[in-house]
Write the C-alpha cells for this entry.
Amino acid sequence: MHRIALAGPTDFKGWRDAARRLARQGVEPADVVWTVVGESSDLFAAPGLETPAAPAPEGPAFAVPRAFLDLAETAILHSDPERFALLYTMLCRLMTNHDALEDSVDPLVVRLNGFAKSVRRDIHKMHAFVRFRAVETEAGECFIAWFEPEHRIVEAAAPFFARRFASMRWSILTPERSVHWDGEILRLSEGVDRSAAPGEDALEDLWRRYYASIFNPARLKVQAMMSEMPQKYWRNLPEASLIIPLIDQAERRSAEMVQSATTPANPRPQRARPTPAEVTEAPAMAGTIAALRAEAAGCRRCPLWAPATQTVFGEGPEDAEIVFVGEQPGDQEDLAGKPFVGPAGQVFDAALRDVGIDRGRVYVTNAVKHFKFVPRGKRRLHQKPNVSEIVACHVWVAQELQILRPRLVVALGLTAVRSLTGKTMTLASAREQKLQTEAGTALLATIHPSYLLRLPDEAMKAREHARFLEDLKRVAEMARAA
Amino acid sequence: MDMLEKLGILADAAKYDASCASSGTDKKHAPAGKGLGSTEGMGICHSYAPDGRCISLLKVLLTNACNFDCLYCVNRASSNVPRARFTVAEIVKLTLDFYRRNYIEGLFLSSGIIRNPDYTMEQVVAVAKSLRLDHGFHGYIHLKTIPEASEALITEAGLYADRLSINVELPTEKALSALAPEKSIPSIRRTMGRLRLKLDEAKSEKHLKHARRFAPAGQSTQMIIGADDSTDRSILDLSANLYGSYRLKRVYYSAFSPIPDSSLKLPPKAPPLMREHRLYQADWLLRFYGFEVSEIGGKGGMLDLDIDPKLAWALANRDRFPVDLNRAPREELLRVPGLGAKTVERLISARRHRTLRSDDLVQLRLPLAKLMPFVVLGDHKPSSLLDSERLSALLRPKPTQMQLPF
C-alpha cells in the first residue's frame, strides 16, 4: 500500500510527481491511498508521512496527451475526495491506451469530465457572482467581496479579477482562501470568517433598482433563472432579496397590463421636430440621372427588390461617351450601393487601365439593378437574372441611355446583350456582329469580367483575358475616332 | 429627478429589448495598475432576472423621449409614460460604478430618437468614447445604431463599441409601415450593409500592426414576434437573409409583451413565449445544424408549439430514419432529435473506440424517449414505432389541465 500525502487540496504538482513515479513503477490504482496534509479523510494516515515507495525499478517513461494534463489540472480542484485516485486510475489507463480519453462515453471519462465541467462552472459563477463592496481604508478606496465557492477554485479564478480590475485595490474573501490585489501583485492568504467582509455598499440600492426595472413581469420564467443562478449563490447577491417579491407581484402586474384598457395617445406627444420621413431632400431635376436614380431607389417592377439591400444604379459623368452595361450587382455592389466595386469590378478597372480608358470618364451600369441571390449559410450565391427580370429592369437602362446619349454602348455579357437588343443570341455571334441598341446607338458585346474569375484553367484564362483586352482596345479606338 | 428614479425609468424603458450577449468580442484587458475592464471572448451573465433572462450588461436608454411613434414601443411619442434623460457623464459614472462592483460586463446603450438621428447618435457615441478614452475602460460596449445617422458617426461608433446593432423589429414592410411609420426597411438594410463592409474590412486588416478596431463582436438585430400577423416562415426567411447578407452574429426574437400604456391600436395580450422559444430553436437549426429554412416549419408557415422543430422535422421525414449512431456521418447525426452539437462530437469521438450501445446513451443522460425511435445502436433497433401513426402522439407532451399563461 502506498500512502501519498499531498501538500494541499489543490496540489497539482505534488499529485503529478507522485502519480508519474507510481505509474512508472507499475503500482495499481487500488494500492494507493491519496491524502492531503491536514485533512483527516484517511483515519490511518499520519499527517505529513508518506510510506517510502518500495525500491521498485522505475518503469519506462511514457507520455500522456496534453488534454489529460488540462483535464487533471482542472478536475483536481473539485471537492470530491476521490479525485486524486480517479485521476491516477485514468493515468494508468492512458499508459496502455494513449487515446483512452477520447472514449467520451466511458464511465470514468464521463466522471472526470463531469468534475472538470463542474469546476469550470464554479469558476465561471465566481467570476459572475462576486459582488465587491467599496470600503474606505487608510490607503484609499478598496473593494472587498465575500464569496463561497463550491470547489477549491479561488486561486484559479483570481487572475481574471486581476486582469479586469487592474487599477483597483481589491480582496476576495472566502471560507478557505482569500486573494488580494494591490494593482500589481496577486497575494493569497488564509480563508476568513464571513464577518470579516463588509456588509453594505451605498450603490446597492441603485443596483437593486436596476434589477427590478429590467425584469419584465409578463415573462416570468423562474425555472430558467434558478438553473443559471441556483439558490446557493443568493445569500451573497445584493439583488437576490428582490427575487421572491418580484415573483410574487409578477402575476398581478402582468395581469394588470393585459386587462387594463388601452390608453388614448398622449395629447402632447414627444415629437419635437418633423421626423426624417417628412424631411425630403430637394427633388432632383427631372430628366437627369440623379432624378432617375432617386426614382429607381424605390423600384418594385420585379420581385428582386425584396431580399436585396438596395437598388444599385449606374454611376459616372452625365456627358460620358461610353456606357458599359453589366449583368447585375453582386454581393459587394449590393452592400455598397455602387456598381462594379467587387472582385469583377477590380478586374474591370485593371482592364480599363491596361487599354488606357479612364474609368472616371465612362458611365457604368447594370442591365438588372438588384442583386439576385440565394442565401447559403453565411454566403449569398449569385443567380442569373431571368428574362422577365431583364425586361422589367430594361426601363431603367433605356432611360439612362436616353439621358446620356453615348456614342458607344458596351454590353458586358449576354444578359446585357439581351437587355439592350431584346434578342437572345450566343456571345460568340454577338461579338462578331455589328450591333445596335434598340435606340440605334452602336453596341459592342464582350464578356462580363466575372467570367475571367470563374475560369479554372490558367491557359484558357490568359487567352480569354487577352481577348477581353482586344475588345476593350476596340472600344478605346472607337472612342478616340469620334 | 434623482438618479434612482431616472435609472428606474430608463432601465424599464429598455427591458423589452431581447439582446443580452456580451460574447464574441476580442480578448482585451486593462494593463496592470491602469484602467478597468476586460473581455475574454466568452461573456459573463452576472445575474438573472426572474424572467429567466441574463443580466450581463447595464442595459439602459440614454433617454426614453422619442420622435418616433412605433406602436409596439412603450417609448413611442404618443405614450404617456414618464420621461427621463441621462447626461453622458451620468451614464459613464453609473457604468463604471456598477462595473467596479462586478455587477455587469459592460454597457448596452440605446436611445429614443431626439432632435434628429445624428444628434442622438452623437450622444450615444460620446458615452462610449468617454468610457474608452477618458477612463481606460476595456469592458464590453454594445451600441444601438440609428439607421439614419451619418456614416461618419456609425464609423466612429464602431471604433469604441464591441458590438453594434440595428433592430429590424418587424419582418415585413407592410407590418413596419403599419406599426412603425417612421422606420424604413431600406435604410435599415443600407446601414447593415455598410456595417458589414466595414466589419469585413477590419477583419481583413486584423493582421496589420495599426489595424483599426471595428466592432469586433459584429452586428446583431432584433425582431418583435406577435405584434403583427407575420408567419414564423417569413420571420425565419428574413433571418436567413440577414445572416447571409450581413453576417449578423445574432438575430434576437422578442415576444411582443404587454406594455403599460398600450396603444389603442395594439391591445395588450400575453407574450407568445413558446413561439419565441421555438423560433430560437429553429434559428439554431439554421446556424449550427445545417438546416434550410424550407425544411423547417409546419402548417401555414407556423412552427409547431408542442414539439421542437427538429423533432417536428424528424416526424415529417421518417424515411431519413433510423440513423445508425455507429456509422452515420456527422451531418446525419446532427439531424437526430435529442442530439445536440456537442453530444454529436462526443459520440463521433467515442465510436472510434467502441460500438455505441443503449447504456452509453444513458451514461450521457440523453433524452431516450425522444431519441430511441430514431436510432440504431449496437444493441438496439427501433421498433415498428417509427412507421406508426402513434409515434407522433407518443412524443407530444401529454395534455394537462389548461394552464394560464401567467
Remarks:
- Chain B touches chain A through 107 residues (CB under 8 Å).
- The mean pLDDT of chain B is 92.
- The radius of gyration of chain B is 24 Å.
- The longest strand of chain B covers residues 219-225.
